[in-house]
Amino acid sequence: MSQSIFKKRNSSATAQQLAKMREELVIIGEKERVLRERSASREVYRYLLDAHRVAAWQNADEDVLNIPPIGKGESNHLAV
Predict the structure, then answer these.
(1) pLDDT score of 80
(2) CA 59 to chain centre
(3) Does residue 32 lie in a domain region?
(4) Has residue 53 been placed in a domain?
(5) What percent of the chain is modeled with pLDDT above 70?
(6) Domain that includes residue 53, residue range
(7) What pLDDT digit, counting tens, does each position of 40-62 carry?
(8) By the 8 A CB rule, do 50 and 42 touch?
(9) What is the 3 state secondary structure string of the chain?
(10) CA–CA separation, 23 vs 40, rounded Å?
(11) What is the dihedral of CA 37, 39, 43, 49, to 10 degrees?
């Protein structure tokens, strides 16, 4: 009789432990899904940013691209 009670308690504890582990696995899976989505979003953002840069570079005026070099004695600090 006592063995039967022990087995029931043990199986109940095991079932609770398995349920908790399943719950943790679901949470981990959800976190992984969110991280994959964020990674994909960052990849799309980088692609769009690169495409924008290429388009902006092709449409830029020559005046914008012709920046005079810094002469001798001049520093690259902004004027105050």
Answers:
(1) 45
(2) 32
(3) yes
(4) yes
(5) 61
(6) 2-58
(7) 999 999 999 998 888 887 766 65
(8) no
(9) CHHHHHHHHHHHHHHHHHHHHHHHHHHHHHHHHHHHHHHHHHHHHHHHHHHHHHHHHHHCCHHHHCCCCCCCCCCCCCCC
(10) 26
(11) 100
**What is the total residue count of the chain?**
80
* Widest distance between CA atoms in the chain: 98
Residue type, 54: V
Cα separation, 53 vs 43, whole angstroms: 15
Instruction: Please report, in angstroms and rounded to a whole number, the separation of the first and last CA atoms in the chain.
Output: 91
Mean predicted confidence (pLDDT) in 57-74: 61
What is the total count of domains within the chain? 1
Could you tell me if residue 71 is inside a domain?
Answer: no
- Which of 55, 54, 32, 36 minimizes the C-alpha distance to 44? 36
